[in-house]
UniProtKB/TrEMBL annotation:
A single GO cellular-component term on record: periplasmic space
PROSITE patterns: PDZ
Binding locations of substrate: 129, 159, 231-233
Span list, region Disordered: 92-112
Catalytic reactions on record: Acts on substrates that are at least partially unfolded. The cleavage site P1 residue is normally between a pair of hydrophobic residues, such as Val-|-Val
Top class in the EC scheme: hydrolase
Hydrolase recorded as keyword: yes
Record InterPro entries: PDZ, PDZ_sf, Pept_S1C_Do, Peptidase_S1_PA, Peptidase_S1C
Molecular function via GO: serine-type endopeptidase activity
Keywords, alphabetical: Hydrolase, Periplasm, Protease, Repeat, Serine protease, Signal, Stress response
Domain PDZ: from-to ranges: 277-368, 389-488
Record-given protein name: Probable periplasmic serine endoprotease DegP-like
Subcellular location as annotated: Periplasm
């Protein structure tokens, strides 16, 4: 009887199995629709473009370090293999009778990446880091054909490179799509050479657009969860029309493998860079000739800008295009050549993408009012001038303090102070000789040797001038004061400090 209860009859068991199968089928039909598994068009895209995707093989000769191939690997102290490797490597004679491989000859290293053909004459796009410092570059077609390639040009700032090779047979090329038309959640397909597994196809969606990960001055990546791994670098990211909408470049991963966070340079950027590399062998970027910084809420309040937006001009190059156009420090650029500027990155990208010599309208906010300036862009020289503000930590003995304001000890500039802080003669204003560690000024990284040039966009020459301006702003109900600050070399920046 017990057995009968635990084991239902064959007919009842068959009915239950049948019902279960129906339930699973119904759940599959309703709970997991076809589009949840990915669009069927992925296979069509892969078949259409696979022959245009190539592997990039490079070799480089490097100096052997610590014995080259005979070098002992670095092991954690106390490792169970430490004694074994010590005996094998340190006591092993290398070439020429030396121990540990001393004086070993240079050796060749190889690396693999991805790329794609954009012209049937043999033009390939890839990442700069895939071919950087390579002695030899080879393109490997989908059918295994290996052909030596030449470098056309590179752009380190966008990590892109263009190669060319002589095809031995007709090629398939792909074209660029419009990355600006991508939508969040849109399906994309990545094809490349991850871990040397050429011709690998993965699919995912667009997770984000215009992503800035602080890897370069013109960051505006497409983020995708399509699986991208080492070796995918330089490979194409396709939309479902089979157009290239990005070049797979970076991943975020603690393990080195894909965790669903990959980044591609958008095709709009790639197409412009590739055109210039093919035409000139280098990049010719537009140059406005200004130094810019972010517009914080405090700075926006000081300048009567609502909401906080744009790029604040902290300095104007005397030889740059902005100077004759009438752009001044303190101006906030909110529109460039018809395009809105939300932050400094926006301005950097749009200026760089604009043709050298083009006359453009630049809309700035000055003293709360919009003004339009016409600027003829110059050419950004590469490499860029590296600007660095080096501060000295030497304590200033017996400072001649003349005024205290905003948590700062202030003094009129004189010859002794210029010598002490190595301040250039061209710098005018009031020098900071000490900063209260608990003040807002300390949080904003003002330090001894900085020079306050303007307060609320008015020049100052003494601590009394600064205090007078601060007192007036308090009476006017302002919460913050905008300072134009110079370092010893004359490089300017704006700093907003609380007056409360």
């Amino acid at each position: 009887m017990t057995a009968a209860i635990l084991a239902p009859s064959r007919s009842r068991l068959g009915v239950r199995i049948g019902l279960a199968a129906i339930a699973v089928a119904a759940f599959g039909a309703l709970g997991t629709p076809a589009y949840a598994r990915g669009p069927e068009g992925i296979a069509d895209v892969a078949e259409k473009v696979i022959d245009a995707v190539v592997n990039i093989s490079t070799s480089q000769t490097v100096e052997a370090k610590g014995g080259g191939s005979n070098a002992m690997p670095q092991l954690p102290p106390g490792s169970p293999f430490e004694e074994f490797f010590d005996d094998f490597f340190k006591n092993r004679k290398g070439p020429g009778g030396s121990k540990g491989g001393e004086n070993s000859p240079p050796r060749k290293t190889n690396s693999l990446g991805s790329g794609f053909i954009i012209d049937t004459s043999g033009i390939v796009v890839t990442n700069n880091h895939v071919i950087a410092d390579a002695d030899e570059i080879n393109v490997i077609l989908n059918d295994g054909t290996k052909i030596k390639a030449e470098l056309v040009g590179v752009d380190k700032k966008t990590d892109l490179a263009v190669l060319k090779f002589k095809p031995t047979k007709p090629l398939i090329a792909v074209k660029f799509g419009d990355s600006d038309k991508l939508r969040l959640g849109e399906w994309v397909v990545a094809i490349g050479n991850p871990f040397s597994l050429g011709g690998t196809v993965t699919a995912g969606i667009v997770s984000a657009k215009n992503r800035d990960i602080s890897s370069g001055p013109y960051d505006s990546y497409i983020q995708t969860d399509a699986s991208i791994n080492r070796g995918n670098s330089g490979g194409p990211l396709f939309n479902l029309d089979g157009d290239v909408i990005g070049v797979n470049t970076l991943i975020i991963s603690p393990s080195g493998g894909s965790i669903g966070i990959g980044f591609a340079v958008p095709s709009k950027t790639v197409a412009g860079v590739v055109d210039q590399l093919r035409q000139f062998g280098e990049l010719r970027r537009g140059w406005l000739g200004v130094r810019i910084q972010s517009v914080t809420d405090e700075i926006a309040e000081s300048l009567n800008i609502k909401p906080a937006r744009g790029a604040l001009v902290a300095g104007v190059d005397d030889k740059g295009p902005a100077k004759p156009a009438g752009i001044e420090p303190g101006d906030v650029v909110v529109k460039f050549d018809g395009k809105d500027v939300k932050d400094p990155k926006d301005l950097s990208r749009v200026v760089a993408d604009t043709a050298v010599g083009k006359e453009v309208d630049v809309v700035v906010i000055r003293k709360g009012q919009e003004e339009t300036k016409k600027v003829t862009l110059g050419r950004l020289q590469d490499p860029d001038k590296v600007q660095a503000a080096v501060k000295t930590d030497e304590p200033a003995p017996e400072k001649p303090v003349t005024q205290k304001a905003l948590g700062l000890d202030l003094a009129a500039l004189n010859k002794d102070l210029r010598t002490r802080y190595k301040i250039k003669d061209s710098v005018k204003g009031v020098v900071v000789t000490n900063v209260d560690a608990n003040s807002d000024a300390a949080e904003k990284r003002l330090s001894a040797g900085d020079v306050i040039v303007e307060v609320a966009q008015e020049a100052v020459s003494s601590g009394a001038d600064i205090q007078k301006r601060v007192d007036q702003l308090k009476k006017d109900g302002k919460k913050s004061v905008l300072l134009l600050v110079s370092n010893a070399d004359g490089e300017l920046r704006f700093v907003a400090l609380s007056v409360q």
